[in-house]
Amino acid sequence: MIRLFRSKIYIAIALMLTVLLAGTLGYHFISELSWLNAIYMTIITVTTVGFNEVGPLETEGKIFTIFLIISSVFIFA
C-alpha cells in the first residue's frame, strides 16, 4: 500500500515538473521572454492566479497558454 502511494506521488511530482519545464521553455522560445519572466508567467498561469501578462503575447503565445492551462488543470487536479 505504501509503495503504491509513493509511486503515485512520484508520478504526480514528475508530471508537475514536466508542466513547469514545458511552460518555461514554451514561453521562452515562443513568446521570447527572458528565463525569469518565462518561469514567472508559467507559475501564474498554472496556479490560475491570473495576473497580467509579463509581455505581450502573440497568437502563438495565446494558443500555448490555452494548452498550458488545460494540461495543468488536469494534471494538478
How would you sum up the major sheet?
Answer: none
| Spatial separation of the terminal alpha carbons | 22 Å
CATH overall fold name: Helix Hairpins
CATH architecture assignment = Orthogonal Bundle
User: Total number of helical segments?
Assistant: 3
The percent range for strand residues is: under 5%
Rg over C-alpha atoms, rounded to the nearest angstrom: 14 Å
User: What's the rounded overall pLDDT mean?
Assistant: 89
Q: How many domains, as an integer?
A: 1
How many β-strand runs?
0
Question: What would you call the structural class?
Answer: mainly alpha
User: What sequence of helices (H) and strands (E) makes up the elements?
Assistant: HHH
Class, according to the CATH hierarchy? Mainly Alpha
**Could you say which overall geometry the principal axes of the C-alpha atoms support?**
elongated
Overall helicity = over 70%
Q: Uncertain segments of ≥5 residues (pLDDT<50)?
A: none
3D structure, described in words:
This protein has 77 residues and is mainly alpha-helical. It has one domain (2-76): Helix Hairpins (Orthogonal Bundle), CATH 1.10.287. Helix content is 77%, strand content 0%. The chain contains three helices and no strands. The protein has helices at residues 2-30, 35-46, 59-76. It is elongated. The mean pLDDT is 89.
